[in-house]
Amino acid sequence: MTYAVIVLTGGKAERLGGVDKAALSYRDATLLDHVLSVVDDAAQKVVVGPEKDLPGVVWAREDPPGGGPLAGLAAGLAKVTEDWVVVLAVDQPGLTKDTIARLRGTGRNAVLKDDRVQWLIGFWNAAQLRDALPDDPRNLPLRKTLLQLDPVEVSALPGEAQDVDTPADLDTLHSG
């Protein structure tokens, strides 16, 4: 089953001093490079955020920029032509190809769950996702919209749902 991916790179990163999370270095690349590497078999790659020079990526931008993750998801989904879509945040260094395979393997709407549901690590039916989106998604909670789709929860492996939100997270990222 082919699928698309939407990677959300927006956000203010206030707790990190406003840095561009997509450009943060991780191993020998960036966080955006890492996230795209775990979905390299996606038929379509849509990145929502400020455009960068990356081949094979379709770019989208929420209107207005900074309208929140649900607005970013709506902007990305407008570019998707596949029936299924993986939705990811850019600041997820713990993601692996196996994470994506386990989500896709459910064959239905699915989200990763560790100590809490990770709404920005999921696999969704694109048509159902479009139907669930509010007319104006700006600054509305992502969780409320995605919860309507009754996703199965896939248990995260240790470290898999790690994200980068604070300077301590960034230190962990660079020491790991």
Q: What does the oligomeric state look like here?
A: single chain
Assigned CATH class: Alpha Beta
Main β sheet profile: 7 strands, mixed
Helix coverage percent of residues? 25-40%
What does the radius of gyration come to? 15 Å
Mean pLDDT: 88
How far is the N terminus from the C terminus? 34 Å
Provide a count of the helices.
6
- Poorly predicted ranges: none
- Shape, per Cα inertia axes: globular
Fraction in beta strands: 15-25%
| CATH architecture annotation name | Alpha-Beta Complex
Strand sequence of the main sheet, in spatial order?
5-4-1-6-8-7-9
GO molecular function, one term: nucleotidyltransferase activity
Protein name: Molybdopterin-guanine dinucleotide biosynthesis protein A
InterPro entries: MobA-like_NTP_Trfase, Nucleotide-diphossugar_trans
Organism: Lentzea albida
Characterization of this structure:
- 27% of the residues lie in helices and 23% in strands.
- It is of the alpha/beta class.
- It has one domain: Spore Coat Polysaccharide Biosynthesis Protein SpsA, Chain A, CATH 3.90.550.10.
- It has a seven-stranded mixed β-sheet, sandwiched between helices. It has a two-stranded antiparallel sheet with strand order 2-3.
- A hairpin with a 2-residue loop joins strand 2 (25-26) and strand 3 (29-30).
- It is globular, with a radius of gyration of 15 Å.
- The model has no long low-confidence stretch (mean pLDDT 88).
